[in-house]
Design goal:
- The complex is a heterodimer of chains A (519) and B (579).
- With 519 residues, chain A is mainly alpha-helical.
- Chain A contains 23 helices and two strands.
- Chain A has helices at residues 2-22, 27-52, 84-104, 116-134, 138-147, 149-159, 168-173, 180-213, 218-224, 230-247, 256-263, 266-291, 293-320, 324-345, 348-379, 384-387, 391-394, 396-409, 416-430, 432-435, 439-465, 480-498, 501-518; strands at 62-69, 74-80.
- In chain A, helix 15 packs antiparallel against helix 22 (480-498).
- The longest helix of chain A is centred in the middle third of the chain and has 34 residues, at 180-213.
- Chain A is globular.
- Chain B has 579 residues and is mostly helical.
- Helix content of chain B is 69%, strand content 2%.
- Chain B has helices at 21-43, 48-72, 106-126, 135-154, 158-177, 182-213, 218-227, 232-250, 259-265, 268-293, 298-321, 326-342, 349-352, 363-367, 375-404, 419-422, 424-438, 444-459, 463-487, 494-502, 509-528, 543-561, 564-570, and strands at 80-86, 98-104.
- Chain B has a two-stranded antiparallel ribbon with strand order 1-2.
- In chain B, helix 10 (268-293) runs antiparallel to helix 15 (375-404), helix 15 (375-404) packs antiparallel against helix 17 (424-438) and helix 15 (375-404) packs antiparallel against helix 22 (543-561).
- Chain B is globular, with a radius of gyration of 25 Å.
- The chains are: A mainly alpha (519), B mainly alpha (579).
- The interface between A and B is large, with 52 and 53 residues.
Chain lengths: 519, 579
């Protein structure tokens, strides 16, 4: 039974997407189909997790294993455990919200609305991401990892929002910055070329692992991988990390992200932040930490330093950024820096923190992108100076959602952003085994990074939320349908902040297994 | 001393050759059909349908015969040979004793399957086009080229290789010239000159290899190298000359720079033939000489092939990025793809000779006709099969669009703008083919081809080549995706495009927003009302073209859903691609 459900999780959205592309359905029918399928997938995922109880055991609680490519020994092997389950839930929840948002926005608003092609792309991204989070075979993982590329490229290139001018900062740096459709093409191709290059490098690592161990099954590899000699493990880890670092993204490979986020429609940004970036960090945990721990141990100091630079660099960029959407994008770089530091620490606390921060970032950044998208629809710009101040008075619902997102983003205790980053820093502090003498300095510097987050997010609140009610046209507040898409994320933000054990207890057994096999 | 020094030095073979007609059936059918076509044309010159039927049925028959040969094998995956001679040491009945000029092995069957399929599709594509105007000549030339390519896949002595290679090349020159205009003549002349020059190099190389190893039989050459005592310098020179002489057939840089001009100057179905059948023939020749005859000196030839592969994919992709014409873009992409086909051979000795489970590569397996399953060769064949299927689909759609386009064969990529709205099936298949060539889902066939192709390189730890390949994935993606994007582009009609390009110049944000929303609004509207850009005559797919597209498209979809069909062909002998 669980095998059927596991097959349906990626299978149903895939089939629905194919139907939406092939059948020439109308917008309403497409929205109805996509939302129904997304809701069904979420229900199935919740049901599967509730029934199979991944928090009770460390291994896979549900598996599916079917022959696929005999000549390569590749099987369609899917499984669900405590590491994948939260991400599957996050993905299916975000997809449902995104579909609902598109449906609700399909009444003359600027923006794509419930375009069948866009909905198909959203469902394809869901299918690819869920398959990646449940794949138990290297080749299946790689194929699923790549599935999201083309649909996401379409979302940016075809449905991207090129209406706003480049901000002053961008124009100052690049007077010839592309605009209009050219900006769309530029952002989309930058995204796809960067990530495709990253995937190709990752593929080298995957094939090396397969050739040296003679299997592609992740369950078998979890045993054989750590037994490889250190030189091979380092080579595999280096290739995998280099490839995955583009997706996460790790500084200095992050330069595709702000452009893609700025141009992508709101739903694209939510999916990018909430789903696509998770593929990279999940890959680091599942493939690098899980399969070649000795290799990661050698590279951990460098990885931690790059993560740290990402925290500081992303935060500093946020401090100087004028465009609210780009600001949230750069803050993603900083938040994912904490995830990377947590993984590099190779301690239970650090990895737990990384997995927590991973989910928290998806929820909080998803919320922020939704709110910023709503603001942008109303203002046709996301420039901090032009948005005007006093949002809490002009549009209280939007204002409070923004305030909640910012507060969670700066890591306020009691909200989702706090626990993950705290545990990641704690893990780095204790990560002397992997990080050596760098452990303490990295932990301290990462902690200082959280202060920078407070600086730029409080600046946003000061400029937009706080202050006197600025003049200009009246600002319609969030409509009920918009609230319906944002409030679940707000609730999740508070819930994860107040009850962190909800998530930590799910990941704990799997993390113990993961780190246990390494030593 | 090498572990292979067990066999005595080979002496010239003397015995009478046995002929196995069943084994030769896949090769003989097209050859016989060629004669029949010419005979029919001599007496019944107006019976076009009969000619078409003879040609197509002979190819289909060749395919069936191929299946029969593979199925009738003992399943062990060993090679069965014909035109064999007894080599030295025949009395003790060892495998080394026999050297065959033609074999049927999993390797040759895989290549022949690709040839038959590609030839059938190219024939169907050509039937209604101007390129097949004198039916009998066209069909006879095509069948001759196909016969050459089929023989080449099974050829296991260098004289047969040389003759088969020429048989598969010279008729194509005639096919190119059937376009009967100045451009066609120029292209034919160019192809002729290149192939004759390469032929000279190849012959010279074969002569040097003969001098170095003392045999033309592949099995005996392998044995000679295994026993040692072969001068390395003549061997290297011979290999270099052979690679140079065969490289043009694969369109590998720097030998394949004729490709774009000849493709652009040929009837499109002939360009399809060049990019599929010719490439299979080229790979067949490379594999016979390098991985079957001389696997033990892979350290000598592998770096050369690695450089050629890296150059091909990089140059091909970089130039393809700048192309605006569909056929020229495909031509440069084919140059890049040949780099991918050669890529596995750049993995060095480890990738060619994998120590077998029974204690190392024994002299028996190496000396006889079996033991052709080099991992690198398998990987190259897998990639080639994925490429051939995708390339056929792309050419089918290009033929259809070319026929419907006012500008004729010189059409640029804009002819494909919005094709998905007008012709969803053709556009969908073209998109799948392009993504398969790029190696991205949903083109899983091509993606797995790339996974398999980098295997030997990674196994041999030739990291620079791996990185070049990775960069080329991104380079290739850039233009394949651009073309795919055109298929679903929103605005086939001119006005919307004009608005969109004018809008960025307007400074006010509001105006730009209006421009963008016009673009969005114009998209579906223009698509529904088959706008002026769909000025092509009503889209009619003739039966033969439809069959070609259906055949190749169906295979591509199947290869993407059940990739084992594709990968399994190369692993017919049960030797896994990965250890």
């Amino acid at each position: 039974m669980s095998a059927v459900v596991l097959a349906l999780l990626p299978g149903a959205p895939l089939l629905a997407a194919v139907l939406l592309v092939l059948g020439r359905v109308g917008r309403r029918a497409a929205a109805l189909t996509a939302t129904t399928v997304a809701a069904g997938v979420l229900l199935l995922a919740v049901g599967l997790v509730a029934v199979s109880r991944p928090w009770a055991t460390s291994g896979d609680v549900a598996t599916l294993d079917v022959a696929w490519i005999g000549a390569l020994g590749v099987r369609l092997h899917l499984g669900l455990d405590g590491i994948g389950a939260p991400l599957v839930l996050l993905t299916s929840a975000l997809t449902l919200l995104v579909c609902a948002y598109l449906w609700a926005g399909d009444d003359g608003d600027p923006g794509p609305g419930a375009h069948p092609g866009l909905l198909a792309c959203v469902l394809l991204v869901e299918a690819g991401a869920v398959a990646t989070f449940t794949a138990r075979d290297l080749v299946v993982f790689f194929v699923a990892f790549e599935v999201v590329l083309v649909p996401m490229w379409f979302v940016v290139a075809r449905f991207g929002d090129d209406a706003s001018r480049p901000t002053r900062a961008v124009v100052a740096l690049r007077p010839d910055a592309p605009r209009g459709p050219a900006a769309r093409a530029d952002a989309a191709s930058r995204f796809v070329l960067y990530t495709a290059l990253g995937s190709a490098v990752m593929l080298l690592g995957i094939v090396l692992l397969a050739v040296r161990t003679g299997t592609t099954d992740l369950v078998v590899l979890a045993r054989l991988g750590p037994e490889l000699d250190t030189a091979t493990q380092v080579a595999v880890a280096a290739l995998l990390l280099a490839g995955l670092a583009v997706k996460v993204p790790v500084w200095p490979l992050h330069t595709w992200l702000p452009a893609a986020h700025t141009i992508a429609p709101t739903v694209g940004s939510v999916l990018l932040a909430g789903v696509l970036l998770k593929l990279g960090s999940y890959g680091m945990v599942r493939l690098v930490l899980g399969l070649v721990p000795a290799g990661l141990e050698r590279l951990a100091p460098a990885l931690a330093v790059l993560g740290l630079v990402g925290i500081v660099w992303g935060s500093l960029a946020c401090v100087a950024e004028h465009d609210l959407k780009r600001l949230v994008a750069f803050s993603s770089v900083a938040h994912m820096g904490f995830v990377v530091v947590g993984i590099a620490s190779m301690t239970p606390q650090g990895v737990q923190g990384a997995l927590f921060a991973n989910v928290a970032h998806g929820v909080v950044t998803g919320l922020l992108f939704l709110v910023v998208g709503m603001l942008k629809h109303r203002h046709h710009t996301a420039d901090l100076a032009e948005l005007g101040s006093g949002l809490r008075d002009r549009a209280p619902r939007l204002g409070w959602l923004l305030a909640l997102g910012c507060a969670a983003g700066l890591g306020l205790p009691g909200l989702a952003g706090f626990w993950g980053e705290l545990l990641a820093v704690l893990g780095a502090w204790e990560g002397g085994a992997a990080l050596g003498a760098l452990a303490r300095p990295v932990a301290v510097a990462a902690a200082v990074g959280t202060v920078l987050a407070a600086v730029y997010l409080l600046r946003v609140l000061y400029l937009v939320w706080h202050g006197p009610r600025s003049g200009g046209p009246a600002l319609p507040d969030a409509r009920t349908v918009e609230l319906a898409t944002a409030v679940p994320l707000a609730v999740a933000t508070v819930a994860l902040g107040l009850l962190p054990w909800l998530l930590l207890s799910v990941t704990a057994p799997a993390v113990r297994l993961l780190l246990g096999s390494g030593s | 001393m090498s572990p292979f020094a067990t066999s005595p030095a080979p002496a010239p073979p003397t015995a009478v050759q046995a002929v196995d007609a069943v084994l030769l059936a896949p090769v003989l059918l097209p050859a016989v059909a060629m004669v029949v076509v010419l005979a029919v044309a001599a007496f019944l010159p107006r019976r076009h349908l009969l000619l078409d039927a003879v040609a197509a049925l002979s190819l289909a028959g060749a395919g069936l015969a191929l299946v029969a040969v593979v199925v009738s094998g003992d399943g062990s995956g060993g090679a069965r040979g014909t035109f064999c001679v007894d080599g030295p040491g025949g009395v003790d009945g060892t495998e080394l004793a026999r050297a065959c000029s033609y074999v049927s092995s999993p390797l040759s069957s895989g290549l022949q399957a690709a040839v038959v399929l590609a030839a059938l599709v190219c024939l169907l594509l050509a039937l209604d086009g101007p390129g097949a105007r004198p039916r009998a000549e066209h069909h006879a030339l095509l069948l001759a080229a196909v016969t050459g390519a089929l023989v080449l896949a099974g050829a296991r002595d260098l004289m047969t290789v040389v003759i088969a290679l020429e048989t598969s090349t010279l008729p194509v020159v005639g096919l190119v010239a059937l376009r009967r205009d100045r451009v066609g003549a120029e292209a034919a002349l160019k192809l002729l000159l290149v192939s004759v020059t390469s032929f000279g190099l190849l012959l010279l190389g074969v002569a040097v290899l003969y001098a170095a190893t003392g045999s033309l039989h592949v099995a005996l050459m392998r044995a000679a190298v295994a026993t040692g005592g072969v001068e390395p310098l003549p061997l290297a020179l011979g290999i270099a000359l052979v690679v140079a002489g065969v490289g043009y057939k694969l369109s590998a840089v720097p030998f394949g720079l004729w490709t774009p001009d000849v493709y652009a100057g040929s009837p499109v179905p002939v360009a399809a033939l060049l990019s599929t059948v010719s490439k299979v023939a080229g790979l067949g020749a490379v594999l016979v000489v390098l991985t079957v005859a001389l696997p033990l000196v892979a350290d000598t030839w592998s770096p050369v092939v690695a450089v050629v592969a890296a150059l091909s994919m990089t140059v091909g992709n970089l130039v393809a990025l700048t192309q605006r014409t569909a056929v020229r873009l495909l031509a440069w992409s084919t140059v890049a793809q040949s780099g991918w086909v050669l890529l596995p051979l750049g993995g060095g000795l480890a990738a060619v000779l994998r120590p077998s489970a029974d204690g190392g590569a024994g002299a028996g397996a190496l000396g006889g006709v079996s033991g052709e399953a080099a991992p690198a060769a398998q990987a190259a064949v897998v990639y080639l099969l994925a490429y051939v299927v995708a390339s056929l689909v792309a050419f089918c759609v290009v033929v259809l669009v070319t026929r419907h386009h006012v500008d004729g064969s010189a059409h640029d990529l804009d002819a494909y703008r919005g094709l998905a709205r007008r012709e969803p099936v053709a556009a969908g298949l073209l998109g799948l083919a392009l993504l398969s060539l790029a190696g991205l889902p949903p083109g899983i066939a091509g993606l797995l081809g790339k996974v398999v192709a980098v295997g030997p390189v990674v196994d041999g730890e030739v990291w620079w080549l791996g990185v070049v390949a990775a960069v080329n994935v991104a380079l290739g993606l850039a233009y394949y995706l651009r073309w795919t994007a055109l298929l679903v582009a929103a605005s086939p009609a001119a006005p919307a495009t004009a608005t969109a390009t004018a809008a960025p110049g307007v400074p006010a944000a509001g105006a730009t927003a209006v421009g963008a929303s016009v673009l969005e609004a114009a998209g579906p509207a223009a698509g529904d009302a088959k706008g002026p850009a769909a000025r092509a005559v009503t889209w009619d797919v003739r039966p033969a073209e439809g069959l070609a597209l259906g055949l190749s498209g169906g295979l591509l979809v199947m290869a993407c859903v059940l990739p084992n069909l594709l990968v399994g062909v190369a692993a017919l002998d049960g030797v896994p691609l990965w250890p």
